[in-house]
Amino acid sequence: MTSEPRWLDEAEYRAWLGYRRMRLLLDAQVSRDLAADSGLSMPDYDVLSALSEAPDHRWRLTRLADRMLWSKSRLSRHVARMEQRGLVRREECPDDGRGAAIALTGEGLRAIREAAPDHVGSVRRHFIDLLTPEQVAALAGIAGVVLDHLGEPLE
């Protein structure tokens, strides 16, 4: 016997629906801006950003795929396209000959450094600057609670 679901009330439904629609529209707008400003896709930016934040500008492919919530094959295919553009290179892992590491090239570092100011401008214009400091703090708190619940603490 299954119990009756706890249906969302009107306020909860509006919050859930609003969050989903906002996320879709915001992601699409920021992605369009990124492509227009830098020629990078959002997946390109995510890979380059992760690599640029690593101390040695490299991540093991499996760890990067886990971080991005992508399959290894999806990331491998995307990295192959980025390699063709000179943004990243694939290297052998020094501690495991079977594994691959993805390293940021000089061109990739230049691309992320040039894209970042316009990207943050887009994020500010379409999201952050529309909110009060209290709303930003509340959103960070909400994100922290949900991410903790999902086992992925806010970094």
> Would you report the number of β strands?
3
What is the approximate shape?
A: globular
Number of domains: 1
Mean pLDDT: 94
Q: Which series of helices and strands comes N to C?
A: HHEHHEEHH
Output the structural class.
mainly alpha
Biggest beta sheet summary: 3 strands, antiparallel
* Alpha-carbon Rg, integer: 19 Å
CATH architecture: Orthogonal Bundle
By CATH, the superfamily comes out as: Winged helix-like DNA-binding domain superfamily/Winged helix DNA-binding domain
Terminal residue distance: 41 Å
Oligomeric state of this protein: single chain
SS strand fraction = 5-15%
The CATH topology corresponds to Arc Repressor Mutant, subunit A
Q: In a few lines, what is going on in this structure?
A:
With 155 residues, this protein is mainly alpha-helical. The protein has helices spanning 10-38, 42-53, 61-68, 72-84, 106-126, 133-149, and strands spanning 58-60, 88-93, 96-104.
